[in-house]
Design brief:
The protein has helices at about 30-40, 55-65, 65-70, 105-110, 175-185, 210-215, 230-250, 295, 320-330, 410-430; strands spanning about 5-15, 40-50, 85-90, 115-120, 135-140, 195-200, 255-265, 295-305, 310, 315, 355-360, 370-375, 380-385, 390-395, 435, 450-455, 460, 465, 475, 485-490, 495-505, 515-520, 520-525, 530-545, 550-560, 570-575. With about 575 residues, it is of the alpha+beta class. The chain folds into three domains: about 5-75 and about 100-345, 3-Layer(aba) Sandwich (Alkaline Phosphatase, subunit A); about 360-435, Arylsulfatase, C-terminal domain, CATH 3.30.1120.10; about 450-575, Galactose-binding domain-like (Jelly Rolls, Sandwich). The strands form six sheets. Strands 1, 2, 4, 5, 6, 7, 8, 9 and 10 form a nine-stranded mixed beta sheet that branches. A five-stranded antiparallel beta sheet has the order 17-20-25-22-23, with no helix packed on it. Strand 13 (about 380-385) and strand 14 (about 390-395) form a beta hairpin. Helix 5 runs parallel beside helix 7. The chain is elongated and about 85 Å long. The termini are far apart.
């Protein structure tokens, strides 16, 4: 049995994907220390972050509460409203509410020394970590990205990261944060401590140690992890874990220290900035910023001394760490929490009294995600999109890729889960988005053309979906003839327009008859086999007349589908026809 009171070390990665570690299946990244932690502890296969972006999950970990209850549902300060968005975001808290009882504050009052080392991103002046129960803050402020990954650790305006004003030239931030955590642990070895080592790794910008980058080969293979800079950052993260564990061994504290390792959201798999995508979350769908599995499912490793190593497949969430760690420390929580004490799972007793996990993300993400909510109950997960009320249902135990939408096969289950999700939102006081009065759908360009990209389409039916960048950027998975798509657009200067499409189609799937309709005028075409669904060809279909300015709609529907799939559709373009 672990001696009382135990020490607690939580290592929180930033933007690390579920599939980024060797113990979760990565064959590209090198993570021997984290793999060893998994072997000696409990590895959770179905662990979730409370949100698809960072600040809400960090708040949930500290308080045990759903982000919706805290009204902190987006990264801070959040993405502003824009005219290309149908909905306006609800106002959110700009810091963790100061009255919240954090795990640091609870443990501090129980005699623990507490430290936040690394990223905070839960408030600025007056809302620093030391306001919420941390005795020490090194590196944590209101920023969501490192001011600099290499010393000096400051922004261009001269503002330093707290506690890092002095540093050797060229010092690497992850190594310095690890050293600061080691320093605090050493100074606290004679009394219980709680350390939240909150790495800025592996968040962009991708600044890695050059000698580590050279360890990895780059490739252009689609759908595989192949980013050497990101891999080098993962390697530095792994080394930090190894260093901390070695220090605990040297201080003879390993047998009395609980270690938790997790991430604040799924891996970034869309292109942001000038570099290639950070990672690939396959087999999970999408990534950071989405309510699909790739955006919210995360690695979770829990090491409790003298507890038998195991693999746990029970769904758990970042909201559970508050209650669980306090239970393991035998410290009363002093406040109600949404999370559940999952310590029984650490002893291979897989029963939890919880019917569901919930998500509420009423925002547009930088990665392309749209406002929505989700619920996972047992093996099934329902996703709701707030723009149009669309529902998608998946059996994530059998289909973690979320390929097969079961909404038409299990309508009663979908209604039941949607009712639960709706009632949960009411119970936590979730703030909903509202209609954006400034919304301008696909505006006409100065040259008179109107571009309708796949990402702005509204999909109707079951399987058709927008598949985002970096690799797809298309309407795809068009395997059902009943599925269809539509676009809203805004006309300033009406007239006659030539309609063209960017269309791809794999071998053997050509020949579908498809109708494009604008303002009651229909152009019919037969899909051309282009040799590959991602081999796009421009097709000119004819002309349509738009007689008045304002909002208009284009629909695309299937008349016949002889092959496996209809096509991939990247863009529809309306080009003004000028009379000579």
């Amino acid at each position: 049995m672990i001696a009382a009171p135990p020490n607690v070390l939580v290592i929180l990665a930033d933007d690390l994907g579920w599939a980024d570690l060797g113990c979760y299946g990565s064959r590209y990244h090198r993570t021997p220390n984290l793999d060893e932690l998994a072997k000696s502890g409990v590895r959770f296969t179905d662990a979730y972050a409370a949100a698809p972006v960072c600040s809400p999950t960090r708040a949930s970990l500290l308080t045990g509460k759903y982000p919706a209850r805290l009204n902190l549902t987006d990264w801070l300060p959040g993405r502003p409203d824009r005219p290309d968005q149908k909905l306006r975001r609800p106002a959110i808290e700009q810091q963790l509410p100061i009255e919240e009882m954090t795990i640091a504050r609870v443990l501090q009052t129980a005699g623990y020394r507490t430290a936040l080392v690394g990223k905070w991103h839960l408030g600025g002046k007056g809302h620093e970590p030391t306001t919420y129960g941390f005795d020490l803050n090194i590196g944590g402020d209101q920023t969501g990205t490192a001011r600099s990954y290499f010393a000096p650790f400051k922004s261009p305006d001269g503002t330093f990261m707290p506690g890092l004003e002095e540093a050797e030239a060229g010092e690497y931030l992850p190594e310095r944060l690890t050293a600061e955590a080691e320093k605090f642990i050493t100074a606290s070895r004679d009394r219980p401590f709680f350390v939240l080592l909150s790495h800025y790794l592996v968040h962009i910008p991708m600044h890695a140690k050059p000698k580590y980058v050279s360890n990895y080969k780059s490739s252009d293979k689609i759908g595989e992890q192949n980013n050497p800079h990101y891999a080098a950052m993962v390697q530095s993260l792994d080394e930090s874990v190894g260093r901390i564990r070695k220090k605990l061994e040297e201080l003879k504290l390993a047998d009395n220290t609980i270690i938790v390792f997790t991430s604040d959201n799924g891996g970034l798999c869309t292109k942001e900035g000038p570099l290639r995508p950070a990672t690939i979350n396959a087999p999970l769908r999408e990534g950071k910023g989405y309510l699909y599995e790739g955006g919210i499912r995360v690695p979770l490793l829990v090491h409790v001394p003298h507890v038998k190593p195991s693999v746990c497949r029970v769904p758990v969430c970042s909201i559970d760490l508050f209650s669980t760690l306090l239970a393991l420390c035998n410290v009363p929580p002093k406040t109600a929490a949404d999370g559940t004490d999952i310590s029984s799972l650490l002893n291979d007793k897989p029963a939890l009294r919880r019917n569901a996990l919930y998500w509420h993300y009423p925002h547009y993400s930088n990665q392309g995600g749209r406002p929505g909510g989700a619920i996972r109950a047992g093996d099934f997960k329902l996703v709701e999109f707030y723009e149009n009320g669309r529902l998608e249902l998946f059996d994530v135990s059998r289909d973690p890729c979320e390929m097969q939408n079961l909404i038409d096969r299990k309508p009663e289950l979908a209604r039941e889960l949607h009712a639960k999700l709706t009632n949960w939102r009411k119970s936590v006081g979730a703030k909903m988005p509202t209609l954006n009065p400034d919304f301008t759908a696909n505006p006409q360009a100065p040259d008179g053309s109107i571009q309708l990209p796949a990402r702005t389409a509204e999909v109707h039916g079951v399987q058709l979906r927008y598949e985002p960048l970096p690799h797809k950027n298309t309407l795809g998975f068009w395997v059902r003839a009943d599925d269809w798509a539509s676009w809203e657009f805004t006309v300033k200067k009406p007239g006659k327009f030539a309609l063209s499409i960017l269309q791809g189609c794999g071998k053997g799937s050509g020949g579908s008859e498809v109708e494009f309709t604008v303002e009651g005028q229909t152009l019919t075409t037969r899909v051309e086999d282009t040799g590959h669904f991602q081999n796009f060809k421009e097709r000119k279909l004819g002309t349509v007349q738009i007689n008045k300015p304002g909002r208009a709609e284009l629909t695309v529907k299937v008349k016949t589908k002889p092959g496996l799939a209809v096509m991939d559709l990247r863009q529809v373009t309306l080009t003004p026809v000028t009379s000579k």
